[in-house]
Amino acid sequence: MATFREIGERGLVEMIRRTVLRDGSPDALTDDASVIPRGSGDLVVCTDALTFERHMPKGMTYEQLGWMAAAANVSDLASMGAKPTGLLASLNVPEDMDVRDICDIMSGIDQCAEFGETYVIGGDTKPGTGTVAVTAIGDMEGRRPMTRGCARPGDVIAVTGPLGGPAAGFRAIEAGIDLPDSVATLMAPIPRVKEGIALASTGLVSSCIDLSDGLSTCVRTICKESGVGAIIEWDLLPADEGVSVISEKLGIPEKDMLMDWGGEYELLFTFDRKDLD
Fold first, then answer.
1. Of 113, 162, 185, 259, which cross-links 240 as Cys (Cβ 3.0–4.6 Å)?
2. Which CATH class is domain 31-139?
């Protein structure tokens, strides 16, 4: 049997999906969040976990880690077009960790919940090595969920904002370059809640995904789930101002920062070309 290291996260997710899916499952488990149909409007639920070891770049505070853990989930709701209705947080933290730092994590989660116009409604704590897991619940409020699997040949691909900020911010921290705006996109990403709701409200979006796994990976995901291909117009990609600065100072290709870096929280969506206006 292969190991996690050998098959990678996406390979493991696919194996888990095949393991748990059975007749009557309410969702195919192929999107940023799962949809639970109900009469008054679909319920949307997602979960994500961050670790102290892997997800805290140099200079990140515990409060920012809490924000990011919540934002990863709120962004998944946004990609479906759901309004957040509650967050649950589970902390797995070292027993010798200062309780003020633990409260800072929860403060960051709560601040992101407030940004999404919702609340922390529960959770759990356990001693451990350092993991912050958040579950987010959302309501479609009668809108049709935006999924990854309905893009059509000829659709336009668009994003909600500039890309490459987290990559530029990370490189800036490593090299001691002053790029506070780019660093902010890395440390405290803004989930596009209002944009997601607005897009879903149009009824014109054929597919949508948040860019937390990076542009190239997410485009491939849309293509795989929709059974289509894609052409990306490099000259039309909106770039964070820090991308050109880092490329010039450190020689890192702009394309690498725009295409292959995770941690983006803009939304990528597709729609029929005739609806451009």
1. 162
2. alpha beta
Residues β-bridged to residue 156: 271
Give the start-to-end residue ranges of the domains of the chain.
31-139, 156-275
pLDDT of res. 11: 75
Of 123, 29, 140, which is closest to residue 78 (Cα–Cα)? 140
What is the pLDDT, as a whole number, of residue 117? 97
Q: Which residue has the tokens 């660093």?
A: 183
Q: CA-CA distance, 214 to 193, in Å (whole number)?
A: 19
Q: Which residues pair with 86 in a beta bridge?
A: 137
Residues of the chain with pLDDT under 70: 12, 20-21, 24-29
Kindly report the CATH number that applies to the domain delimited by 156-275.
3.90.650.10
- CA-to-CA dists, residue 33 to 26, 115, 117, angstroms: 12, 19, 19
Q: What one-character DSSP code corresponds to residue 139?
A: E
